[in-house]
Amino acid sequence: MHDREPLLQTILEQPEADWPRLVYADWLEERGDSHHAELIRTQCELAHRGCRGEWRKSLKVRERELLRRPEFRVRRRP
After folding, report:
1. pLDDT exceeds cutoff 90 at 78
2. Which long-range contacts (CB under 8 A, 24 or more apart) does 41-45 make?
3. 37: which DSSP letter?
4. 3-state class of 6 per DSSP?
5. CB of 63 within 8 A of CB of 46?
6. Which whole-number Å values give the CA distances from 65 to 41, 73, 75, in the listed order?
7. Which of 6, 7, 11, 37 has CB 3.0 to 4.6 Å from 28, enough for a Cys bridge?
8. Closest by alpha carbon to 5, among 16, 20, 15?
């Protein structure tokens, strides 16, 4: 699949499901966007109720690290 639009549409149609996001993460990684893919996977894992304790803490740390990357910074209009 070369077009991301069908993947994004599936994510929008199934907002509670992780699998469309994880498929999109795989798609991004195959195209060299590994940080975005990792962020999606990390956030999916954090959304699980069973994600607790030290594992959750380490995922939160990694999420913050990823969100500090330049490609995830929000650009403000002057």
Report:
1. no
2. 42/66, 44/18
3. H
4. helix
5. yes
6. 14, 12, 18
7. 37
8. 20
Of 18, 21, 19, residue with least CA distance to 4: 21
Looking at residue 18, the DSSP 8-state letter turns out to be S
> Residue 39: which residues within 8 A CB-CB, separation 6 or more?
63, 66, 67, 72
Q: CA dist 74 to 9, 41, 63, 68, 69, Å?
A: 23, 20, 16, 10, 11
Residue type, 27: W
| pTM, rounded to two decimals | 0.86
Q: What is the pLDDT of residues 28-47, one digit of tens each?
A: 999 999 999 999 999 999 99
Contact 5, 12 (CB under 8 A): no
Contact 48, 22 (CB under 8 A): no
